[in-house]
From TrEMBL:
InterPro entries given in the database record: Acyl_CoA_acyltransferase, ATP_grasp_subdomain_1, CoA-bd, GNAT_dom, NAD(P)-bd_dom_sf, Succ_CoA_lig_flav_dom, Succinyl-CoA_synth-like
Database matches in SUPFAM superfamilies: Acyl-CoA N-acyltransferases (Nat) (SSF55729), Glutathione synthetase ATP-binding domain-like (SSF56059), NAD(P)-binding Rossmann-fold domains (SSF51735), Succinyl-CoA synthetase domains (SSF52210)
Name this protein carries in UniProt: GNAT family N-acetyltransferase
CDD domains linked to this entry: NAT_SF (cd04301)
Gene3D superfamilies: 3.40.630.30, ATP-grasp fold, A domain, ATP-grasp fold, B domain, NAD(P)-binding Rossmann-like Domain, Succinyl-CoA synthetase domains
Top-level taxon in the UniProt lineage: Bacteria
One GO MF term: ATP binding
One matching Pfam family: Acetyltransf_3
Sequence ranges assigned to domain N-acetyltransferase in this UniProt record: 32-188
Protein's organism: Nocardia wallacei
Keywords: Transferase
Length: 896
């Protein structure tokens, strides 16, 4: 390449932005790696170009272009990552797609750039063009580019479709055979909806590929069922997997009567899934073989990774990077395995000795050892599963992926989760809210994992409880409760209300059920006592009457014979009575646990079908399960509302302010009091006006400017928002009082800076806070202020961003919320007029939008807020900014 061939570009371009590197799922569920182009890509790019068909080159370059010229190659690979940006998509060591944009410097108005991309013929139709467009738009937005322009041949239908279906508002014009397309790249609701829809489809397809493989290799297979490789091979063979199974063992010609291969490379046919059961020290060579073979997915049963400490964590990270770089996904390491009970697949690639039968419940579990016990319990209770995944360390495939899969899976009606960590909590909340609208999710969270030694705090439990409730998740505390709810959800309809009938032949057990139900918030009268001598006909009549009554929403039936009797007639009576209506029926049937055969409805192949009646060992457990399911049913009836985006906000100014402050303190800092006020004002959040003063004269002048009466406040950490008001002087009406207050406060605090603030309307003190939590993501909390409230922990929490309905419910959720309505909890006794709760909910909406738009706000406290019938006035606000946390749920699609 001669020097004149080089454009006016720096010889050494700046380093490529590493945060643009992303593993992304293609439309078919395979993984590709996207990264910024570099000068080192010149040879690979030329090979990529040479491999394009004549037709593809014609559509991209509008004519024959068999080889890139040195000048074009140089210009394409030497970019500044601002005005000229190039991205490549790789699979293994090969470039399979290229995209770029270049600033249109001669264009007036907002910055605009021309965008173009091309995909290798063998990878067209995988959605790579859409992926490139998303990531190019993300890079352009970082560089203050507002508009993309594209020139496309009118006959290039595939490219036109990429732009049309992306969710942008595209303006089109035509000049002969060329279409001119132009569109703003600001994220719109339509754009985000398209992104989320594509993300859901690709993640679901990715998991589907793992759960429905056409062929499986077991690497580390042995004849011994007591070893990991032997156990999983035995389960695959005994489960009659509907495809070939290839044992891999370099020391054996066959394993369990099936021909074995020395390495996965030696298998003559394609391998869709490899189950890895070798020591951690042998993992790298196994990975090399799988990547060379083109295996599509891995289940790594091997332990010895992140659960062992930093070195294991690094090895696990390298494993995931290598696997994804070659288009694969991985379940594990330290996984129990995966299962799919679909007869067309019959996959049991787990270490569990017992697998439940076919059903319509999907189960995700992080813990490997616990997963085996869970499967055994499900089988004992006759709870059928559709699919099961134990992800172990959850290094790649996570609960979020499974939620996406089950959301689209027609064979799954109920989702069960056993969680130790949340991974991407913000994304989890978003997906769960959507899935729970049509399929119930029951979750138990252990709150700990192998890397955590600190017990879970009551605060963390409160946050988790509220976030689960916000997303419509049925939260339980134990595995037993998980199955109690699952049995009801899987086989009985949802209750339409809280009204419960208790029917039984034991008055004592009936009252236990009534007391438990009332304690859980259900509406129940005295039990219908059929007496110990009740006949099957008595049960049938009572159950049928309850099913027919418009005043009853659910039924608990207790059958506890005082003497040994034949129970089949009683079971038949209960089942027949239950079939006369569409209300949920639960039983305590001779203290049976699970699904009694006599109360089971069987389908084709002997599967347990809807209409089967679950039994609980005691009536209290039945009542608790029903109450939890009732709360879920109530949540589901509430109309879904939209995320609130206030119109009168100045996001650009807020971002500029935060950017300026971060440039001065890249590691983050607490903002000054006036800086916090300035930031909040960008989103229409007003703090009661105040002045910072440093002497008596300044205090008197500030009071005159603000207007009497005023308050004086000491500054410093020890003096802010103290309940004893030691650092505050209120209702100052005269200059002399202001001067005296300044002197007192400066002396007692040891700080010459004092705030003089206009007096606010008296009201109920409230607190709104936002904090970026590593376990739960950005969380907003609300509560009333006061020492007693703090001691009781009466705060409620919600994940950001808030919907309109959630912001309203947030204000009503604390136990002390009746005080906002002027109520004391004592009948007939009030403490004043109701406050303007709408002002509080609108304030929560604005704070939600601010912290969602600017993730650099790591903490924000608005306290106290005085809520009154006239509105809500903020007396003080504090904010801490810091480097933006990794938020893979916003911006272009990527795997976390």
């Amino acid at each position: 390449m001669t020097e004149p061939d080089r454009p006016d570009t720096p010889r050494q371009p700046p380093p490529p932005p590493q945060h643009w590197v992303a593993d992304v799922l293609a439309a078919d569920g395979g993984v590709v790696r996207l990264r910024p182009i570099t000068p080192d890509d010149a040879e690979a790019l030329q090979r990529f170009h040479a491999g394009l068909s004549d037709r593809t080159r014609y559509l991209r370059y509008f004519g024959p272009y068999p080889r890139m010229t040195p000048k074009d190659l140089y210009r394409t690979t030497h970019v500044d990552y601002r005005d000229r940006v190039g991205l490549v998509v790789e699979l293994g060591e090969s470039i399979i797609a290229v995209g770029r944009y270049e600033l249109l410097s001669d264009r007036a108005g907002p910055r605009a750039a021309e965008v173009a991309f091309v995909v290798a013929d063998g990878h067209q139709g995988r959605g790579l063009g859409s992926i490139l467009l998303e990531h190019l738009a993300g890079a352009a937005a970082e560089n203050d580019i507002a508009t993309f322009v594209a020139e496309v041949l009118a006959e290039n239908n595939a490219m036109v479709t990429v732009f049309r279906d992306a969710g942008y508002q595209v303006q089109r014009s035509r000049d002969g055979s060329v279409l001119h397309l132009e569109f703003a790249i600001d994220p719109t609701e339509a754009l985000l909806s398209v992104r989320d829809s594509r993300e859901r489809a690709s993640e679901a397809r990715s998991v589907g590929n793992l759960l429905s493989p056409g062929s499986i290799a077991v690497i580390g297979a042995t004849p011994s069922a007591g070893r990991v490789g032997g156990a999983v091979l035995a389960n695959l063979l005994s489960g009659v997997f509907q495809g070939p199974v290839y044992p891999v063992n370099p020391n054996r010609g066959s394993v369990r009567g099936v021909r074995a291969y020395a390495t996965v490379r030696d298998i003559p046919d394609e391998v869709d899934l490899a189950v890895v059961a070798v020591p951690a020290t042998e993992i790298q060579s196994v990975l090399d073989d799988c990547m060379a073979k083109g295996v599509k997915g891995l289940v790594v049963l091997t332990a010895g990774f992140s659960e062992t400490g930093p070195a294991g964590f690094a090895a696990e990270r390298d494993l995931v990077a290598a696997v994804r770089g070659h288009g694969m996904r991985v379940v594990g390491p330290s996984a129990l395995g995966i299962a799919n009970t679909d007869p067309a697949v019959s996959l049991n690639a787990t270490l569990a000795s017992v697998l439940p039968g076919r059903g319509r419940v999907g189960f995700f579990c992080q813990s490997g050892p616990l997963g085996a016990a869970i499967l055994g319990e499900a089988a004992a209770r006759k709870l059928g599963l559709s699919t099961f995944v134990s992800a172990g360390n959850r290094a790649d495939v996570s609960g979020n992926d499974l939620l996406q899969y089950w959301d689209t899976d027609p064979d799954t009606d109920v989702v069960l989760l056993y969680l130790e960590t949340f991974g991407n909590p913000r994304k989890f909340s978003r997906i769960a809210r959507r899935v729970a609208r049509s399929k119930p999710i029951v979750a138990v969270s252990s709150g700990r994992n192998a890397t955590r030694t600190v017990p879970v705090s009551a605060l963390e439990r409160s946050v988790e409880r509220d976030l689960f409730a916000q997303a419509g998740i049925v939260q339980v505390d134990t595995i037993s409760e998980l199955f109690d709810c699952a049995m009801l959800l899987a086989y009985q309809p949802l209750p339409s209300g809280p009204r419960l009938a208790v029917i039984g032949n034991s008055a004592a057990l009936g009252w236990l059920a009534v007391d438990a139900a009332r304690g859980e918030g259900l509406a129940v009268r005295a039990p219908t006592d059929l007496r110990p001598q009740a006949t099957p006909a008595d049960f049938l009549t009572a159950v049928a009457a309850a099913m027919d009554s418009p005043d009853i929403d659910a039924v608990i039936v207790i059958f506890a014979p005082p003497v040994p009797v034949s129970v089949s007639a009683y079971a038949e009576a209960i089942r027949t009575g239950a079939q006369t209506g569409t209300k949920p029926v639960l039983t305590t049937f001779v203290a049976d646990h699970g699904m009694p055969n006599l109360l089971t409805v069987r389908g084709a192949g002997g599967t347990v079908e809807r209409g089967s009646i679950p039994s609980y060992p005691d009536p209290e457990r039945a009542a608790r399960a029903l109450a939890r399911v009732r709360r879920y049913a109530d949540w589901r009836t509430r109309p879904a509302s939209l995320i609130v985006r206030p119109a009168d906000v100045d996001t650009e100014r807020a971002r500029n302010l935060v950017g300026e402050w971060m440039s001065r303190a890249p590691e983050g800092q607490w903002l000054g009091d006036l800086e916090a006020v300035d930031l909040l004002a960008c989103y229409g959040i007003r703090v009661v006006e105040f002045r910072e003063v440093r002497d008596e004269d300044g205090a008197e002048q500030a009071a005159a400017e603000l207007g009497y009466p005023v308050a004086a406040k000491a500054t410093g950490e020890l003096w802010r928002n103290r309940p004893d008001l030691t650092g505050v002087r209120l209702d100052l009406w005269r200059p002399s009082a202001v001067r005296r207050a300044y002197t007192d406060l400066a002396e007692v605090s040891g700080n010459e800076v004092v705030h003089i603030q206009r007096m606010a309307t008296k009201g109920v003190g409230c607190v709104l806070r936002v904090q970026d939590d590593p376990s739960f993501g950005s969380v907003i909390s609300f509560g009333l202020s006061g020492t007693i409230i703090d001691l009781l922990g009466d705060r409620v929490y919600r994940a950001l961003p808030l919907t309109e309905a959630e912001s309203v419910a947030l204000i009503d959720a604390p136990r002390a919320a009746p005080l906002l309505d002027g109520q004391t909890g004592v009948p007939g006794k009030t403490i004043g007029e109701p406050v303007d709760k709408q002002a509080l909910s609108q304030l929560a909406q604005r704070i939600s939008a601010l912290c969602d738009d600017l993730p650099e706000i790591r903490e924000l406290s608005v306290e106290p807020i005085l809520a009154s019938p006239r509105g809500a006035e903020i007396l003080y606000a504090r904010a801490r900014i810091g480097p933006e946390p990794s938020r893979f749920d916003i911006g272009p699609r990527r795997l976390a």
